[in-house]
Specification:
Blueprint lengths: L1 E4 L5 E9 L2 E8 L4 H8 L18 E4 L2 E4 L12 E3 L12 H8 L9 H14 L5 H7 L11 H12 L5
Parallel strand pairs: 2-6
Antiparallel strand pairs: 1-2, 2-3, 4-5, 4-6
Helix pairs in contact: 2-5
Length: 167
C-alpha cells in the first residue's frame, strides 16, 4: 500500500479495491472506514449507515465473499480485496433470485435493512445452497430489522434456496 503525504504533511494511502467487478484506486486517510469509501468516494449508496457500531448490519457487504459490517472495516483493510455491495448483486440488469424473492414474499417494509440482509443471506446461500430455517435465522442474526419481524425475510431466503422464485 502506497503512502502519500498531502500539502499539510498528512499521510494518505492509495487503496486498490475491486467493487462489484470494477477496479478502483482511491486515496484515503488511515481512519477511513469501508462504508465511507463505498458511499462517499465510489458513490455506491446502497450500503447503508446505521448504528456505526457493528450492531445493526445495515452496512453489510461481502468482503472476499464473507459478510462484514463495513462500518467496522478500515478501507485500508480492503486493499487488494473484492467487495460486493447490493448494487453488485443483480447481474446484467436482472435481479438476483434472492432480490426477487424478497419482493415476491413481501420481505421489505421500510427497506433500510434490506441491502445488508440480502448480502448476509447471499453469503449463506453461496456456502450452503439448501439451508434450514435455523441456519437462515443464524445467518441474518447480525442484521436488525425494526419493521418486519423477520418472518417474511426468512420465508424469502428459504424460497430462494428452494427455487420457488418467480421470474
Amino acid at each position: 500500500m502506497q503512502a502519500i503525504a498531502d500539502k499539510q504533511g498528512v499521510k494518505r494511502y492509495l487503496v486498490d479495491v475491486t467493487v462489484n467487478g470494477d477496479d478502483y484506486s482511491v486515496v484515503v486517510k488511515a481512519n477511513t472506514l469501508l462504508v465511507n469509501l463505498l458511499r462517499d468516494e465510489i458513490d455506491l449508496t446502497g450500503t447503508k449507515k446505521g448504528c456505526e457500531l457493528g450492531d445493526c448490519g445495515s452496512c453489510t457487504v461481502l468482503l472476499d465473499g464473507k459478510p462484514v459490517d463495513a462500518c467496522l472495516v478500515l478501507a485500508l483493510e480492503a486493499d487488494g480485496c473484492d467487495v460486493i455491495t447490493i448494487e453488485g448483486v443483480a447481474q446484467h440488469g436482472e435481479l438476483d433470485k434472492l432480490q426477487r424473492s424478497f419482493a415476491d414474499n413481501a420481505a421489505i417494509q421500510c427497506g433500510y435493512c434490506t441491502p445488508g440482509m440480502i448480502l448476509s443471506a447471499k453469503a449463506l446461500l453461496t456456502r450452503n445452497p439448501k439451508p434450514t430455517e435455523p441456519e437462515v435465522r443464524a445467518a441474518i442474526s447480525g442484521n436488525l430489522c425494526r419493521c418486519t419481524g423477520y418472518v417474511n425475510i426468512v420465508k424469502a431466503v428459504m424460497a430462494a434456496a428452494s427455487g420457488e422464485v418467480t421470474a
